[in-house]
Amino acid sequence: MYTVIGIGVMANALLLLVHISLHITGQRPKPTDLPIGLLALIHLVILLIKGFIAADIFTPQGGRWDDLTCKFLIYLYRLMREFSICATCLLSVLHAITLIPRSSCLAKFKHKSSHHNLCFLLFLWVFYSSFSSHLFISIAATPNLTSDNIMYVTESCSFIPMTFFLWHSLSTLITFREASLIGIMTLSDGYMVALLCRHKRQPSVSTALARLQYHPQN
Fold first, then answer.
1. Structural domains in the chain plus CATH codes
2. How far is 48 from 54, CA to CA, in rounded Å?
3. Residues pairing with 141 in the sheet
4. Which helix (H) or strand (E) holds 141?
5. Closest CA relative to residue 85, chosen from 37, 45, 35
6. Distances (CA, A) of 182 to 89, 93, 186, 203
7. Is the pTM of this model over 0.90?
8. Residue 151 DSSP SS3
9. Most trustworthy range by pLDDT among 33-37, 129-133, 152-156
10. 56 with 157: CB under 8 angstroms?
11. pLDDT of residue 167
12. What digits encode the pLDDT tens for the residues 97-148?
């Protein structure tokens, strides 16, 4: 467990340093550099938090966390995961935008600055993370007494049981949230596949026209 976390930390730290060095040297950044650099930073934070959580899972004798520590670490871990999903969604959209032909009405989005991309990413993150605010209420330090209704997250933290109505409402909202971002990424990937397939067929059409020019029909 700790070996995998260590390898992931080193890989993401190296990727983050590469993007920072490109920015320091004054090279012109690509539109996709921002989400890639952010993903490296986000994954680095996620792996570090995972290390803390794993320490509480596998070494419970080290002392229990208090209520504030449980809420902070679990909620931060969830926020970083959601930020990672939003950055991946933005990266998928930017990849699709780079393939847009100049004749398309969507070509104007190619010239959007990193500031606009960051604003869009923050909007996605706020929208996505707004459905996770219930963690401040549902996450708490595990009580000393045992109960069958408690769902353990780590040795020190657990989920407080919610009412059926609240659980059903949150499940519906989370399903809507996931479907929204998956829909955006699906549309972006589908658009890229369609453009690449059309681009692949174009040389065949050009070759056929050239053959007709050199070998006209009698």
1. 2-214 (1.20.1070.10)
2. 10
3. 157
4. strand 139-141
5. 35
6. 8, 12, 6, 33
7. no
8. strand
9. 33-37
10. yes
11. 79
12. 777 777 666 666 666 666 777 787 788 778 777 777 777 778 878 776 566 6
